[in-house]
Every structure is written in structure tokens, then in C-alpha cells.
Amino acid sequence: MLVKVNRAAALALLTLLLFLGFAPASHAQLGITRPKGQQLLDGIVVKVDNQIVLQSDVENIYAQEVARAEGKPLPPDFKCKILQSLVLNKLMLARAEVDSVTVEDKQVNSEVDRRMAYFVQQIGSEKRLEEQYNKPIKTLKDDLRPQVKDQLTQQKMQETITGKVTVTPREVAQYFSRVPKDSLPYFSTEVEVGQIIIPAQVNEKAKQAALAKLNDLRGQIQGGADFATLAKKYSEDPGSAKEGGYLGFFGRGELVPEYEAAARKLEPGQMSPVVQSQFGFHLIQLIERKGNTYSTRHILLKPETGSADAGEAAKTLTKLRRQILSDSISFAKAAKEFSSDKITGGNGGLLQNRQDGGTRLPLDKLDPAVFFTIDTMKVGRITPPLPYRTDDGKDAMRILWLKSNTPPHQANMQEDYQKIAAAALNEKRNKALDEWFLQNRGTVYLEIAPEYAQCKVLDVATK
How crowded is residue 344: how many other Cβ atoms within 10 Å of its Cβ? Predict the structure, then answer.
């Protein structure tokens, strides 16, 4: 029997499965090889031009979905659907290469850091992560980087195809009218929550202690001590300390600006003065240059924040809270001007629903720290400053604002226009992807392993 494929739906499925922002973290999502003792037999199951799909790609996603199904059977053709999604993304990559659609290394590195910080937070610590995979953080990041680059390239290619697609209010209404009344979704309690975050600043005493320690180490190295030996003993970068501080080769824009600027001023073997970056304080030694790349080692010290620093952040937030409650400044303006979280700060301080891009969040899906804080709050109230730890593990303080609380209800145009509009837009984008696929499916070479031949991954969808 011929398997019919809705290419856009399949692509959306893979996006849902693979992108960290849309689902809980897993080994497969983060592109990290399974821990030792859990290796799968691997092999190429599909070639799309010079792109390949591995058996483990399919099996990892399938295993994840089996676990998520909690005992409920998956459709018999579910592995075909996974493969179809993977092939569609490989087609995106193949065409991106032809069309010169690329992403910058700086963006890739930023996303790698974000995902790794999230995963470290989920597992408990960098040390536990390294122990589980028997690899240093730097190696895990190197393993993750190619997959992140592919995913960002796929995302950019999809945006190139669908970026100009929009829907009018009339199209939204027409979409809603086509949904059978007995099929309208029922939404649980939803809330809009705003936040303003101010990080704790490193106190001067801790900063001076770190500077003094690094300058002492610098003097020891100038006196003949081995840089790598001291890095192994003192550096607080777990990813490189075990390697004597060695970071490997990087190109322009791949490391934080302060680090790169200092490293590029050095000659091989030379050592920098103490350099401050967002990660702490560094001593940097240039090892080698190759074309536009360079390799370095470093010693990193991270001054700890203290209660006095959090107190300063709390004082600032307390003052802002009073001003907002007295209508001297709006929450949105205060978030934009003062919050260290630029994503919510640019959104009026409101947390975003990653599923539909809106600001209304299901109460039962909230982060527990937010849920237990706002669960008994009245609309319009703002919390006092509360301790907070950012995604990258830094201490901070924040205030939370309960903007709205919508009781459970069946979907309707008045209360759920944003969600309905997002669904209508998604449908229209899917059609644009279908059209793109029909135009480009014949431009690639496809080879599929016999055990997956029944999937017919490039068949036309039934409309």
C-alpha cells in the first residue's frame, strides 16, 4: 500500500521532536552520543544528495516517542513518518547548500551554549554530565555543534520559504468556521505572567581576590611554571581544565569578543594580562595560528556572587515595583529598560508560549517556581523580589507580575484569537511548504535502504 505523506506536517513533527525549545531535553534532541553501554548498531538508511540519515537518527526519536506515549501504541507507520521528517529536513539542507542559505558561527555557538546550559541544569551539574558521557564539556559541545548548525540552517531555509506568509482576520475567521463545533479544543486555566530580572553582581572583594590570584599565577608562569599544569589545578572551566586549559582552534567571532581580542594580539607562546568576560576572568596563552583560526589555552576563575550583591539587585527591583504600582512607570517599560532577559524584556516582560508565540500560558504547564508563586495571586499583583537562577546558571533576583488569569473554556474567537490565528497561519505555511516541496523534490538524488523502501518518502500528499 502506498504511504501518503503530508510533507509540511512531517516537517513540523520533526521540528517538534528535535528543537529544544518545543519539548523536554533528551540525549537525541541535544545531539549527544548515548552514554557508554547504550550504543546502537548504526548504518546509513537514506542518502539525499550529500546528506545522510542514520539508523540511530530514526531509532533515537522513536525511542523518545515510545517513552512519551507511556504505554500507548504508536501507529504502525510511525517510523516511516519519522524518516519522512528526517528526509524533508535533509532536502532542506541540500537546497540550502545550493541556494547559499547559511547561518553564522556566532549564532551556532550561542545556541550550543544555550542548550548545554539547559541540559546541565536538568542533569544537575557539569561534573555529572561529564561523568555520564565520559567526555569533557568542550567535547560534548563539539559533538553537538554540527547538529545545531544543521537545525538552524533548516530553520532559516524554512523561514526563507514561509517568512512572507501572513493571514488576514478574514482568513482566521474562515479557518475557525471550518473547525467542527464538537472538535473545538477545551483550554485549561491560562495566565499571562511578566518578569523583570536583575542579575547579582560580583562584589568587589570577590573580584579583587580573583584578579590577585590570576596575577599571582601569571607571575609563576613568567617565572617558569607550566601554564597547563596550573590550568589543571586552578582553572574553573571544567571543559578545558582537564586538558591543561586547551580550547582548540576557533575562527573569528566564535569566542566572546573580549577573549578573542586579547588572543589575537598575542604571538605564539605569549600570555595575556588578566581578561574579563561574561564567564569570569581569564589568563590566555596563544598556542598556534592556522590561517584565520587560532588555538589557545586559558585559566578561568569565576568570582562567586554573594548575598550583598543579590541585595543590591533586590533593592533595585523593590524600587521598580513601587514605581510600577504607583503608575510612575509601566511594567512593560521597566522590563524593557532594566531586565537582563532581553527576550521577555522586548515582549513587555511577558513570558512567551513557545507553542503558539502568544503570551497566555497553561497554568498546569508553568515552571513549578512560577506556578507556586502566582497560584494564589490576584490579577495585577507583583511579587516582592525573589531569588532566581538564569538558564546559564547565574544568580539573579526577579519580580513576577500576574497580568491576567483566564478560566477554563472552549476555544472561541473572542478569547483565543491569537491561538486561532497561529493555527491558521501554520496551515497556510504548510501549504507553502507543500508547494516548495513539489517544486524541489526532483532536484535531489535519493537512495533509501531496502528495509525502509515501503515508506515512499517523496510521494505526493493527498489533499
Answer: 22
Distances (CA, A) of 191 to 344, 352, 353, 372, 416: 15, 11, 10, 13, 13
DSSP SS3 for 231: helix
- Given the DSSP bridges, would you call strands 275-277 and 280-290 parallel, antiparallel or unpaired? antiparallel
Find the CATH number of the domain harbouring 294: 3.10.50.40
Place of cell 483566564: 406
Residue 178 in any domain: the answer is: no
> Contacts from 431-439 at CB under 8 Å and sequence distance 24+?
431/8, 432/161, 432/162, 432/165, 433/7, 433/8, 433/11, 433/158, 433/161, 433/162, 434/6, 434/7, 434/8, 434/461, 436/161, 437/7, 437/8, 437/88, 437/91
Could you report how far apart the first and last alpha carbons of the chain are, in Å? 18
pLDDT digits (tens, 9 = 90+) for 299-345: 999 887 665 568 889 999 999 999 999 999 999 999 999 999 888 99
What confidence tens digit (pLDDT) does each residue in 76-107 have?
Answer: 888 888 888 888 888 889 889 888 999 988 88
At residue 228, the pLDDT reads: 94
413-440 vs 78-98: helix crossing angle, rounded to 10: 70
Cell matching residue 280: 569570569
pLDDT digits (tens, 9 = 90+) for 65-75: 888 888 888 88
- Please name the helix (run of DSSP H) or strand (run of DSSP E) that holds residue 346, with its range, or none: none
- Asked if residue 359 lies in contact with residue 402, where contact means CB atoms within 8 angstroms, the answer is no
Residues 6 or more apart in contact with residue 378 via CB below 8 angstroms: 402
Q: Which residues of 56-92 are buried (b: 16+ CB within 10 A; e: fewer)?
A: bbbbbbbbbbeeeeeeeeeeeebbbbbbbbbbbbbbb
Q: What does the block give as the cell for 251? A: 575562527
Residue 335 sits in the same domain as residue 196: yes
Q: What is the pTM of this model?
A: 0.56
What residue type is 61 in one-letter code? I
DSSP assignment letter at 401 = E
Residues 85 and 166 in one domain: yes
Residue with the three cell numbers 538552524: 152
Neighbours of 167 (CB within 10 A): 19
Mark which of 301, 325, 340 sits at the end of a domain. Answer: 301
What Rg do the C-alpha atoms of the chain give, in angstroms? 25
Which has the closest alpha carbon to 351: 305, 325, 388?
388
